[in-house]
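Example S7 (C-alpha cells).
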C-alpha cells in the first residue's frame, strides 16, 4: 500500500477544499442608488446614525434604521456584487485564498498559530463563509435577554430574502444517516431551529448556487434615508468631553482610498448615536484606537485615553474545529455545510464534499500537490466537529495605530479541559459515522481509521508543531490539528463592555452591535443570529426614537 500517494491525495484535497473555485457567470448587481465610493464623500457631513461596518449585522441594522432616520453606513471593503468568487457556491474558498489588498477577505494568524480570516466587503462574513443558516437555541435567546417574539420576527424578516432549503445529494445523505446510526438522535428533518439530534439546516445559497448575503438586505432600506460609502476606513470615533458628565460620541473620522480625510458628525438630538458593527476584531480595535480601552495598553501606543475600559478586547473566543478527510471510491456531489448533528455532549458535527476540490486552486501547497494528480484523486469529503461555546477565552491587543492592520489576537484553544473533552467526543462520533453502514460505500476499506487520522495530523493545517501519531490519545490529535471555522467572537461583551441594550458602558451615544458582544457562539453557526441582531436592535432603537 503506497501511503505516500494517499498522503499527497489528502494534502491536495485539503488545499483544494480550502481554495477551490471554478468559472461562473457574474451576478447582476442591485441598483442601490445610495451606494458610493468614499472618494465621493464630502469632507464634512451630518446624520442621525453613523454605523461603522457594513457587515452581517451592519447591513440589516442600516436598512432598518433608514426607515425613520438618516443613516450613514461606512464599509472599509468594496461591493460583493459582480465578483463570482463571492456570489457563486462553486467559488467557495477563492476569496479566502486571495491575499491581495482588494480581497473581500483579510487573512490574520492568531498568536495560537491558527490561520484565520476576517471579512473586508459589504455584507461581511456572509460573503465569504460556507453559507449554513441556522437559528440560535431558545435557551440562548432567553439567556441573552432578548424578546422572543421580536427575535422570531427578525429571523423571518431575513429568511424571505437570504435563506433556502438545500438539495441533499448522496454523500450528505450518507453523513446524515451515519449520524443517526452513531446515535445523534432524533432525525429532525429540515429546520432552521436549533434542537438536539440530526437535521438539515438552511443555506444562503439558492438552488442555482447563487449566494445571498447581508448586503441583499439593503433592498429593504429607505433610499432617501441611507448613504453607504465603500472603501471607507474609519480611523477614530470622536468624543465630546468638555462640559460633559462623561464622554459622548459625536462623530467619526474616515479615510478613502486616496488617503483623504473625511469627518461625519451626529446631528443634534438626544437619540442620535454612533453604532460600531465592525466585527469581533474590528469593534474592539476601533474602540481602542478611539481611546476607549485598557489605559496602559493605549498609552503604550501613544493613544489619548478617553475612558479606561480594561475589558475591551477581553473574552476573545474562537470555536475550535477539527476535521477528518475521507477519500471516496465513488464520485460525490459538491456540497458545503448542509447536515448538522447537535450532540448532548457539546460538539456539532458537520460535513462538506466535492470532486472538484482542485479546480483552480491558487495556493502554492495546493498547486504543488495537485499538479500531477488526476481528478479522481479529489473525490471525497470532510467531516468536521466544532466545539460549542467555547469555554476557553483569550484577548486582543493593538499592534499598530492603523485600523487597516490586524490587531494581535490570542484565542487559547483548548485551554479549558472541557473544550478538549468535547473535541475528543466529536472525533469519536466522526469515527462512528465513517464506520456506519450508511457511509460504507463512500470510503476505501484499506484506509483504516488510524490511517485517516494520521493523514489529517500530518497535513499543513496550522502553524503548530506536530506531535500526533496513532499510538497517542485523541487529545493530542485535537490540539495538533485545530483549525478555525471562522466563528470567533467577543472583545466587547454584554455585561462587560456593553449593557443589555448594547450601549458602551461609561460613555454616551455609542453602541456596539455585532458578534463581538457574544459570550458564546449562537447555534451551530452564528451568521443567522448576527443578521437577526442587526434587524432586532434596529427595530428596538427606532421604537425608542418614535416613543420619545
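Recovered sequence:
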Amino acid at each position: 500500500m503506497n501511503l505516500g500517494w494517499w498522503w499527497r491525495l489528502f494534502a491536495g484535497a485539503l488545499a483544494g477544499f480550502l481554495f477551490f473555485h471554478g468559472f461562473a457567470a457574474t451576478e447582476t448587481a442591485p441598483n442601490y442608488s445610495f451606494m458610493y465610493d468614499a472618494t465621493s464623500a464630502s469632507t464634512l457631513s451630518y446624520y442621525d446614525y453613523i454605523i461603522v461596518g457594513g457587515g452581517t449585522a451592519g447591513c440589516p441594522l442600516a436598512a432598518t434604521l433608514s426607515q425613520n432616520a438618516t443613516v450613514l453606513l461606512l464599509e472599509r471593503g468594496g461591493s460583493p456584487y459582480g465578483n463570482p468568487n463571492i456570489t457563486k457556491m462553486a467559488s467557495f474558498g477563492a476569496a479566502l485564498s486571495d491575499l491581495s489588498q482588494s480581497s473581500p477577505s483579510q487573512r490574520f494568524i492568531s498568536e495560537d498559530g491558527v490561520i484565520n480570516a476576517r471579512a473586508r466587503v459589504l455584507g461581511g462574513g456572509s460573503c465569504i463563509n460556507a453559507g449554513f443558516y441556522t437559528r440560535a437555541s431558545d435557551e440562548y435567546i432567553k439567556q441573552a435577554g432578548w424578546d422572543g417574539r421580536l427575535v422570531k420576527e427578525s429571523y423571518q424578516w431575513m429568511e424571505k430574502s437570504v435563506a433556502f432549503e438545500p438539495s441533499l445529494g448522496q454523500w450528505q445523505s450518507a453523513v446524515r444517516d451515519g449520524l443517526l446510526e452513531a446515535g445523534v438522535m432524533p432525525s429532525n428533518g429540515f429546520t432552521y431551529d436549533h434542537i438536539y439530534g440530526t437535521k438539515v439546516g438552511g443555506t444562503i445559497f439558492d438552488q442555482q448556487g447563487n449566494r445571498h448575503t447581508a448586503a441583499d438586505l439593503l433592498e429593504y432600506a429607505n433610499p432617501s434615508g441611507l448613504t453607504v460609502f465603500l472603501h471607507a476606513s474609519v480611523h477614530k470615533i470622536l468624543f465630546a468631553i468638555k462640559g460633559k458628565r462623561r464622554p459622548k460620541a459625536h462623530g467619526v473620522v474616515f479615510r478613502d482610498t486616496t488617503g483623504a480625510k473625511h469627518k461625519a458628525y451626529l446631528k443634534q438630538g438626544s437619540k442620535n448615536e454612533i453604532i460600531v458593527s465592525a466585527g469581533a476584531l474590528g469593534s474592539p480595535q476601533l474602540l481602542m484606537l478611539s481611546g476607549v480601552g485598557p489605559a496602559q495598553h493605549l498609552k503604550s501606543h501613544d493613544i489619548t485615553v478617553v475612558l479606561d475600559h480594561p475589558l475591551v478586547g477581553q473574552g476573545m473566543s474562537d470555536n475550535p474545529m477539527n476535521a477528518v478527510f475521507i477519500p471516496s471510491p465513488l464520485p460525490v456531489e459538491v456540497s458545503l455545510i448542509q447536515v448538522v448533528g447537535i450532540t448532548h455532549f457539546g460538539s456539532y458535527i458537520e460535513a462538506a464534499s466535492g470532486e472538484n476540490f482542485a479546480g483552480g486552486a491558487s495556493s502554492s501547497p495546493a498547486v504543488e500537490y495537485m499538479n500531477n494528480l488526476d481528478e479522481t484523486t479529489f473525490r471525497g469529503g470532510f467531516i468536521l466537529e466544532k466545539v460549542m461555546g467555547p469555554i476557553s477565552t483569550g484577548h486582543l491587543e493593538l499592534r499598530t495605530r492603523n485600523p487597516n492592520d490586524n490587531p494581535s489576537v490570542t484565542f487559547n484553544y483548548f485551554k479549558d479541559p472541557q473544550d478538549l473533552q468535547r473535541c475528543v467526543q466529536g472525533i469519536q462520533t466522526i469515527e462512528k459515522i465513517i464506520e456506519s453502514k450508511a457511509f460504507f460505500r463512500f470510503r476505501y476499506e484499506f484506509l483504516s481509521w488510524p490511517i485517516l487520522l494520521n493523514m489529517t495530523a500530518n497535513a499543513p493545517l496550522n502553524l503548530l508543531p506536530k506531535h500526533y501519531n496513532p499510538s497517542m490519545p485523541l487529545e493530542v490529535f485535537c490540539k495538533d490539528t485545530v483549525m478555525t471555522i471562522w466563528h470567533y467572537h467577543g472583545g466587547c461583551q454584554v455585561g462587560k463592555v456593553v449593557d443589555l441594550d448594547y450601549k458602551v458602558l461609561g460613555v454616551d451615544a455609542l453602541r456596539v452591535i455585532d458578534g463581538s458582544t457574544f459570550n458564546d457562539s449562537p447555534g451551530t453557526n452564528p451568521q443567522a443570529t448576527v443578521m437577526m441582531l442587526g434587524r432586532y436592535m434596529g427595530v428596538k432603537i427606532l421604537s425608542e426614537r418614535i416613543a420619545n
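Notes on this example. Confidence is low (pLDDT under 50) at residues 1-9, 15-27, 356-374.
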